[in-house]
Amino acid sequence: MSTPALPRPGTDTVLDRGAILAWLREDDPARLGELWAAADETRRWGVGDEVHLRGLIELSNYCVRACGYCGLRSANREIERYRMSADEVLECARQAEEYGYGTVVLQSGEDYGIHADWMAELVAAIKREIGLAVTLSLGERPDDDLALWRTAGADRYLLRFETSDDELYRLIHPDLPGRRSDRFAILATLKRLGYEAGSGIMVGIPGQTWDSVADDIDAFRGLDLDMIGIGPYISHPATPLGDRSWAREIADDAQIPSDEITVYKTVALTRLVCPEANIPSTTALATINKIDGRELGLQRGANIVMPNLTPPEYRQRYEIYPDKACVNETAEMCRGCLQGRIEAIGREVGSGPGGRRRA
């Protein structure tokens, strides 16, 4: 049976959940070529041809969580832990300004050694001394922390819900003792506080179905997210899911693969249902296709990349998964490489903070 017609920018045609599912299962190269073209057209209409560079600073690899796939999980005793100082983070932010980035992304595990007041002072210093947009990605923090950081000047907050399938989420993201995880509620709080709210998913989690990912894409639309990150599921070998011991058993034909073509389909369909959202071509995508994974992501709906500013002595220790792309590059090398890749596909590097453009 033929997949449904694709929406064109500015029309009333929408992809319903059934159409999303049909396109996720599509494997005909000619039809997929139509999907790539429609996503790229919608991207141009919704966010333009600029590719914004957001400098990533991985300031701590401590984490209290026990996620089943992540190398930063608290039970991993093999990892050498670190926290960057405020001066080190500020120096990275100054590099971002020097390279022309409009945003820095401060990312860590869910680390309560990062005190709320310390982070508020750091955000305020970046805004006061350097003037960049600040995106935070620090896990599930209390509402008071989120409010404090917003008051200090933080512009955006990223919190991926990973999967909208609650049973699967509980399996791979165990709750902390006495505290049930509810990322959808936190996303609502972020929007109420005035943040640009970002979320996203992994594609190909063991036990994740085609239907589940169709639900995820439909959820993006309902959440009206400002930024949506989509990457392939990659597990760290020193985790339960590294050997699939936590995997939920489902029928083989129901399991969605974690290959790059399925990620591209998910990115493209997300662009069609969320034309104004900022969508990165992720490091994880570049990890599974180091030759042109980022470029293909940008040609199939994405408009953001995140060059890494983390100092070399820390970068290899931020090992969410192994063999991460660009882990041995300096910040300067990363900047030059990405600019060349962007220009090679006929796009231009954006300037300014690159916030969401609303119609």
Provide a compact summary of the structure.
By secondary structure, this protein is an alpha/beta fold.
Topology:
Elements: H1 17-25, H2 29-47, E1 50-60, H3 86-99, E2 103-108, H4 116-129, E3 133-137, H5 143-152, E4 156-158, H6 166-172, H7 183-193, E5 196-203, H8 210-223, E6 227-232, H9 260-273, H10 283-288, H11 293-298, E7 304-305, H12 312-315, H13 331-344, E8 348-349
Parallel strand pairs: 1-2, 1-7, 1-8, 2-3, 3-4, 4-5, 5-6
Query: What Rg, in angstroms, do the CA atoms define?
Result: 19 Å
Percent helix: 25-40%
- Major sheet details: 8 strands, parallel
- Average the pLDDT over all residues and give the rounded result: 93
Account of the 3D structure:
- The protein has 359 residues and is of the alpha/beta class.
- The protein has helices at residues 17-25, 29-47, 86-99, 116-129, 143-152, 166-172, 183-193, 210-223, 260-273, 283-288, 293-298, 312-315, 331-344, and strands at residues 50-60, 103-108, 133-137, 156-158, 196-203, 227-232, 304-305, 348-349.
- Strands 1, 2, 3, 4, 5, 6, 7 and 8 form an 8-stranded parallel sheet that branches.
- It is globular and about 55 Å long.
